[in-house]
Write a structure and sequence with these properties.
- This protein is α/β, with parallel strands linked by helices and 370 residues long.
- The protein folds into two domains: 272 residues, TIM Barrel (Alpha-Beta Barrel); 74 residues, no CATH class.
- It is 45% helix and 13% strand.
- α10 links the parallel β10 and β11.
Amino acid sequence: MASSDLTRREFLKESSLAATGVALAGGWSPTLAQASKPEARNKQPGMRYRVLGRTSLLVSELGIGGHPMSAELLEAALDRGLNLMHCAEQYANCLPEAGKVVKTKRDKLFIAIKRLGSPEQMDSWLKQLQTDHVDLIMYPGGTVAEAKEKAGLIRDRFEAFRKAGKARFLGFTCHTNVEECTAAAVESGVWDVINPQYAPQLREKLDPILAEAKKKNLGVVLMKAFAGVKGAPPELPLKTALATKNVDSVWKGIPSLQWLDQMVKAVNEPLMARERQDFQRHVAAHRGETCAMCSACLGCPRGVAVEEILRCSLYYRQEQNDPALARAVYHELAPEQTPQNCADCGRCEKVCPNGLPVRRLLREAHAALA
């Protein structure tokens, strides 16, 4: 392991010290975290890095998303200086494919895993990854209660893994009710990292929340920064997201070596005013074609998970061309959350800011994914 990396004993010691700084609200001691020397891994001249808040992990501005995942592309990403990887059991072949690389190059990667599973699940995930610990557990939540009121209880569950040396830091990730959940997570003082989806039409509302997160020294990693911008030059969602100082990294699935090289190049280029304007014009011109992931459709009187279904269909199935993942996520819904329970009242269409034919899209999603 390189001299800049923590040994296993050192990271357990630092994690233990951090735990002693936990305040009544459940957060870390800012004084301790700010005093920590940034922990670097796989640092290379061709990549840019930012400190992930109070974790003090020095992460690449471009992170490796969990799907698609292949050992070949992960190796290529490491060769180009990426060092932050997000993975999850539900992403097809993600864990075993990553494990082929992690087995010999664990010291080059910071690994985040989605979900706070049972001890048995965690052991299975670690076995597939061929490592004995992850750096981040990202808890997926969709309610303000999970982000704030129940956050202390979630932290208690995480502490068992931290004390066992199986995880180091705890993050909160959300796909729905993003604005309210992210704000609540920042206010709670419990989480080390926040990971909101950053679809273009959410950015104006999220930016002040991310600024507050950085004031509190939270790490900020963005996801879904590419949602709803199909047809735009692919480097623009990344460059516009990284243009703010309140973001540490953006993770995205890497579909090809060509795409990887294009994104690495974009990381090293400044965002031009013309590019920002082009991006904004593209988003405005195509807003009627895709879900804004704004959560306006939450609160269906019948309990249909409208936004989640549209995300499965429009994002995973169409934009990402990953019907297997779309189907897997869709099948996690309870029967009463599917379009079969729709009363055809039209509320979702009335509140949709993009004017989408939501009821038709829900029926099409059910036909394709059920």
